[in-house]
Design goal:
Structural class: alpha+beta
Order of helices and strands: HEEEEHHEEEEEEHHHE
Number of helices: 6
Radius of gyration: 20 Å
Shape: globular
Helix content: 25-40%
Length: 269
């Protein structure tokens, strides 16, 4: 039961008593939802030998439908996923939590990335929610071989930064939860020492400036190519967010934003 007498909440004298109680209860529910959503996100960057993974996340309202995680697997590889639920706000956050809960029960089974998304798709189809789905990407990187196995399901990219070049990987795939017989194909990417891979949700790609121009994947490719040899891998996610913020010039956006970057130094620390 929410503590409606919480002294940290601002007092309101312009509401009827019953509406005031409901407003305070709603605010407490949103506060709790924010805490729960933060608990589903990584608390710290991941550093595993020559691999580092960092992220930036910004919901467009109090809570959002973007989700991501990264982790080491028992065989020494690094797994990471990022997703974007259709919609925003509390309903999208709840669906994101459902997706993450199911995914966490699959990704440590040792299956390839396409197999993981196939299983996720079947389970999400069984638990289908009308009008909801989650586009996502899942990747596993092996620092011993430099190979990354990636499967995409309805998202732009990811973006491979190598030396002074950034390339958007062209991948297709249906968001899990829409069609029970959807098939998923993986792509194998070789990372050289110094390479990075940028994953992002549509909130980055579809960010708009006051002139109604989209930031767009081409502008992200251009940005990453320009900064490839100038910005450390550990700062790429923060730099992309700053560039999007500069582009939008303070315009209120309509979608959550998330960026995740894996950097491969090739050298054990």
């Amino acid at each position: 039961m929410p503590n409606l007498t919480d002294p940290t909440l601002p007092a309101r004298t312009d509401f009827p008593a019953d509406l005031y109680v409901l407003e305070r209860a709603h605010q407490l529910d949103l506060d709790e939802a924010r805490r729960i959503q933060r608990a589903t996100l990584p608390e710290y960057p991941l550093r595993a030998g020559p691999v580092s993974v960092l992220h930036e996340f910004q919901p467009v309202v109090d809570v959002g439908g973007d989700f991501l995680d990264y982790f080491t697997l028992p065989d020494g590889t690094v797994g990471l996923y990022i997703g974007d639920v259709c919609g925003k706000g509390l309903p999208a956050a709840l669906y994101a939590a459902l997706t993450v809960g199911i995914l966490r029960g699959i990704h440590k089974t040792g299956q390839g990335t396409s197999g993981v998304l196939s299983v996720l798709n079947r389970r999400m189809t069984l638990r289908g929610v009308s009008g909801r789905y989650a586009a996502m990407q899942y990747a596993v990187f092996d620092p011993a071989s430099g190979l990354m196995d990636i499967t995409s399901a309805g998202m732009h990219g990811p973006f491979h930064i190598s030396q002074d070049v950034c390339q958007m990987l062209e991948m297709s795939g249906v968001p899990p939860g829409l069609f029970p017989d959807a098939a998923y194909e993986s792509l194998t990417l070789h990372l050289a020492p110094g390479d990075s891979v940028v994953f992002c949700t549509d909130g980055i790609i579809e960010a708009m400036n006051p002139g109604d121009d989209f930031f767009g994947p081409e502008r992200l490719v251009e940005l990453c190519s320009m900064i490839a040899s100038q910005v450390p891998g550990s700062e790429l996610a923060e730099y992309v967010f700053a560039a999007v913020g500069s582009f939008t010039e303070g315009r209120r956006q309509h979608d959550d934003m998330a960026v995740m970057v894996l950097h491969y130094s090739g050298v054990e620390p």
